[in-house]
Write a structure and sequence with these properties.
By secondary structure, this protein is α/β, with parallel strands linked by helices. It has helices at residues 16-27, 39-51, 66-80, 103-131, 154-173, 213-224; strands spanning 7-11, 31-35, 56-59, 85-88, 135-140, 178-185, 235-238.
Length: 249
């Protein structure tokens, strides 16, 4: 098992990519704290993990609020005794143009999608430093953060910020033996903020098939495992080759 007896926090783990990461980590021996604003979703995933013989607990945390994040991280440390891994997965999107997006909508997307990983990284890093044993963090970015899109402005900006946030976190936390990297998926599972997978969603990657949440989870597992000991401040695209060529979005 690659993560035996380690404790991981996964944000937005009540569905889609976050849920798959949580379940894969448990299969690899980790104990998982599920952070989700939707209590029913978080409880459902935690219950499924516990019923299968793993160990998980759900926490309702608003990652856009420092007080809430600090409380949640403290509760995880108390519940499990330590924190070894952080996966910043939660995000919301706008799917609007600069003309149509309101200031309030912009602020909300930026608060959850960019400020959230900053706050989570800050308070989890403090806990890891206090433990003195280092740790691993992975920020879930997006191909949307590497280029412009015709139907989103706040989301693309926030994800672009996540990419450079990852680099700066990597530089600043490396002296504490905390490795930070990112993963950039493309249209993995259901769209951001939606429960259902859309079978008519256009696929533009080179494999001509949808990226599955489990594909993203496997890349994340690699980055937090000992297989990636010397991988720091890097990004892995899990996009079927979308970013390799000029493919229309």
């Amino acid at each position: 098992m690659k993560l035996k007896d380690q404790v991981a926090i996964v944000t937005g783990a009540g569905r889609n990519i976050g849920e798959e990461i949580a379940k894969l980590f448990v299969a690899e021996g980790a104990k998982v704290a599920i952070f989700d604003m939707d209590k029913a979703r978080g409880d459902h995933v935690a219950a499924a993990i516990n019923a299968s013989g793993g160990e998980a607990a759900a926490f309702v945390v608003d990652v856009s609020k420092g007080v809430d994040v600090e409380r949640g991280v403290a509760e995880v440390a108390k519940r499990f005794g330590r924190i070894d891994i952080l996966i910043n997965n939660v995000a919301i999107s706008d799917n609007k143009t600069i003309i149509d997006l309101t200031e309030e909508e912009w602020d909300r997307v930026m608060s959850v999608t960019l400020k959230g990983p900053f706050l989570m990284g800050k308070f989890v890093a403090k806990q890891m430093i206090a433990q003195g044993s280092g740790g691993k963090m992975v920020n879930i970015a997006s191909t949307s953060g590497w280029r412009g899109r015709p139907r989103a402005i706040a989301y693309t900006t926030a994800k672009g910020g996540v990419i450079n946030l990852t680099r700066s976190m990597a530089v600043q936390l490396a002296p504490h033996n905390i490795r930070v990297n990112s993963v950039s998926p493309n249209k993995a599972g259901s769209p951001v903020g939606k429960d259902e997978f859309n079978p008519d969603r256009p696929i533009t990657n080179l494999l001509k098939k949808a990226v599955e949440p489990s594909d993203v989870a496997k890349a994340v597992l690699f980055l937090v495992s000992d297989d990636a000991t010397f991988v720091i401040g890097e990004n892995i695209f899990v996009d079927g080759g979308v970013m390799a060529v000029d493919v229309p979005t």
